[in-house]
Write a structure and sequence with these properties.
341 residues, alpha/beta, Rossmann fold, 3 domains, six-stranded parallel sheet, 13 helices, 43% helix
Length: 341
Amino acid sequence: MPTLIDIARRTGVSGATVSNVLRGRGSVSVKTAERVRSAANELGYRPNLFARALAEGRAPTIALFFTNITNPFYAQFTLEAEHAARRRDHFLLVCNAARPDGTLDTAYLDAVAGPLSEGLIVLGSDLGRKNLLSMLPAGVPAVLSIWEAPDAYPSKPCVTVDFRAAGRLAAEHLLELRHGSIAILTGGTSGVPIHNMRLAGAVAALRQAGIDLPKARIVVDEDSIGGGYRAACRLLESDPHITALLATNDLLAIGALQAAAERGCPVPRALSIVGITDIWMAAEMRPALTTVDIATASLAEGSVNLLLDLIADPDGVPSDALRVVGAPRLIRRASTAPPST
């Protein structure tokens, strides 16, 4: 693999001059710079980013951590985050840092933070909240992204969207269609919801309309298609008079669509289903899923920008900085309609 020394020998200049040209530094004549770049292209030179990081004490990379690479939302977020990082001359390392039980593998944090990346974005509300802060490497810039309750993290910068508004929009849509028999599917573990703000926004909107949901109509299950399927099956079996399901995640809503189809319950004629997130699969379902778009591109760009701002000026970003980005909006598709009379 060609090195800076090989280019220096080819062009008859010093290694320091070659380095300055390829990094856009120092004062080098136009003629010399063109000769160096031409030699680099002829030799097939590629910069060694790891060696550069060791020499400079910094890496032109940031790392994105999550614990479920199979979740389509994380793929969308990653793509947008990569675009945002490149716009600011950085690369993105993607780490599916999960143990077999789904918890965060801190070995990734120790291996990547510092030596391979300038900072970390920790993504998702499915990580252990109580222990997360103690797991983050000391002295490494870190941003928490898409947390349902950012006030629970007073010592780390955080990026989020107004999830309460997202839940409210989903509920108001069903109310506008004149649904009264509504149930909610929400993601969580051991019966404890993780989509707290979405759930709170939906419940508040329903209560304002005079609908006070009983506990039996708020079902918590795994935040996945399978969880949505199981929760919808239980609800439709125990309460066949339900006319609409609000899922706090599109994966849950897709599982509910599957449960309805299996039971011969036509959507939306007999049952309306609305989700929250607007993953790419939502538009591909049949019927296409009505959902609330949570501005994934804005979330990803906001997370990258906050982290790079923190890296560039640690004193300029408060430790408890909170950026609420984007604005949730309803995406009307084919899975919702007025209840049949």
